Amino acid sequence: MKNQKQILISIFVLLAITASACKSIVAPANPAEPPATLAQVPAAQPTQQPAPQQQPTVNAITFSAEIQPVSGTYLFTEGPAADGNGNVYFSDINAGKIYKWTADGSVSVFVQGLSGPNGLMFDKSGNLIACEGGKGRLISINAQGQVTALVETYNGTRFNEPNDLWIDSQGGIYFTDPAYQAPVVQDGQHVYYLTPDHSQVTRVINDLQQPNGIAGTADGKTLYVADYGANQTYAYAINREGTLSNKKLFVAVGSDGMDLDAAGNLYLTTPNKVQVFDTTGKHLRDIPTTENPTNVAFGPARTGTIAGKDGLTLFITARTAVYTVKMSMSSTAVETNTSTFTLTSPDLPADGRLPVEYTCDGAASTLALSWSAAPAGTKSFVVIMHHAAPDNAIHWYWVVYNIPTGVISLAKNVSGIGTIGTNSVNKDLAYAPPCSKGPGDKEYIYSVYALSVPQVSIPAAQATREVMLTAIKDITIASAELHVVYARP
Hints:
By secondary structure, this protein is mainly β. The chain has one helix at 465-472; strands at 7-8, 18-22, 39-40, 46-47, 60-69, 77-82, 88-92, 97-101, 107-111, 117-122, 128-132, 137-141, 147-151, 153-154, 157-158, 165-167, 173-177, 190-194, 201-205, 211-216, 222-227, 232-238, 244-251, 258-261, 266-270, 273-277, 283-288, 295-297, 313-318, 321-330, 342-344, 369-372, 380-388, 394-404, 409-410, 419-420, 442-451, 476-486. The protein has one helix and 38 strands. The strands form nine sheets. A five-stranded antiparallel beta sheet has the order 1-5-30-29-28, with no helix packed on it. A five-stranded antiparallel beta sheet has the order 2-24-25-26-27, with no helix packed on it. The protein is globular and about 70 Å long. It starts with 6 loop residues before the first strand and ends with a strand.
């Protein structure tokens, strides 16, 4: 961890006990040749229906006022995973180690000498399954710390950097394979499924930019996958034989690691906070962190037991730090929308439909926007408008950055405020009105980002949505979204 310091926060958050603790990463030595029979299936295609829902619980968990740092010095922590005995294991990617935390607060090295260990999860036999990114493989580590390679290649080529994983109830393993530290080795960055007997690996998702965090629901019906590169999180229906279908955009938020609680709420690790979404994709609240969180875990997914002797401890890995958060049960109904930073438009009707005036079928005006309750420390704002097409392509229409902190609204057809970046329609430094093809409703998303710096030093001609999101990733304090719908006449 970078600085072992206690962070005092006042948060009144509702959480429920976990249902899955999955994280991704690299694997150790002794590789076993993967099976000769390798299958590939086409990626699931997106649809416009809402994401799958689960029944929420009325039991809530409230955080104590203090987030406590775990003792020790770390380089880059990741992949927390709890066993069935109240212990939590986490990896240090850069140090090549996996640590074991016990309920008395002590930390010891469980295994070392690995190459980029990342996401972790225990299987039903008590083996710790790990992504060993540096060697491009998935490994199994027994209680004595002995390492066995589970799978190292796909179609005769090593994986990129296995990053995060989730194990289903049959013992099959879903894992993401992006590339961060080295060039892409495979023909892209994809998601795979290793059968329960470890005899066959199948590519189950092949249309994401840079898949990262992954987690499945307790009933084994839904798999969530974060596309870190596209800043999106998708939900998939899990079929027999491990295949996936019915791809749906869950939230327009990317994530590093992720986890689910017993109510089905999804916890995404984003810059300087953990964001919590309910089963419909509604933003419930944020858990602020000093360093960017990389992963979270509540406890073992299979047994239902929770990490720590008290049974109610949330673990957050955050680069050079690991934090624990004490929680207590209550029977309060789950609250929603407690984040105060909001984005609205005075020109948007109550049904959320974008008037034709703001599209290519009308006057091509820019929508008036206003935001409120920006967090303390905000020095500037960025506004972006984008659309995720059915083929998973991201189109952006408006990028405005270096908006002064004193500005809390943009008038219709605004000019002279901030710097205008590019759009993906004509590449001009201007607003491009949405002009979607095909029938049916199309969703467009306006996003505002509160930044901790007064200026982003990017030339306007280079200010694409992707470049901007990458540049502000570590300096975003808060963000808010406004979703609108338009159907061309």
